[in-house]
Amino acid sequence: MGLLLKERDYAQSPFIVIWEVTRACALHCLHCRAEAQYASDPAQLTFEEGKRLVYPSGFLPVKAGNVREGSLQQIYREAPVMKQLRDKSLLKGKCGRCPYKEICGGSRARAYGVTGDYLESDPCCVYEPEKSAVESGESYDAT
Prior knowledge:
Helices cover 23% and strands 3% of the residues. It has 5 helices and 2 strands; from the N terminus they run αββαααα. It has helices spanning 47-52, 72-78, 80-86, 93-97, 108-115; strands at 53-54, 65-66. It has a two-stranded antiparallel sheet with strand order 1-2.
C-alpha cells in the first residue's frame, strides 16, 4: 500500500496541511524551512485582500470572484468558473463520458492540480467508463 494510502489514526497522529500564503517574515527562525524575506512580493495579496476572494473550493485555487465587487450569491450564480463546475456536460475525458458524472463529478481540484484544467478527468478515479466508438478506434460506415 502506498504512503498516501497508509491507514492512520488521526486522533493519535493528526494530518496537518500547511499552506504558506506569504514569504514576508522578518523573524528568520533557525527551524523554519521557508526562505523568509522582510517585505511582501508586490504580486502577493495582503491578508485583507485574501479574505475577500471567493474560490470554488479550498483545494481549487481558481478565483471565482471578490465579495467587494459582488455578493457571494451573485458570484456563485454568475461567475464563469462556478457555472462551468456546475455544468457536467463540460467535463472532459473519462469523467465526461462517465454515467455517474451527475452524482460524482470527480475531483475538480485533483484534475486541476495534475493537468491545470479543472474540467479534465479526475486522475485518481479508478472507474473506467466504456469508450465511444471513436475513442476505441472502431470504424464507422454510414452507408
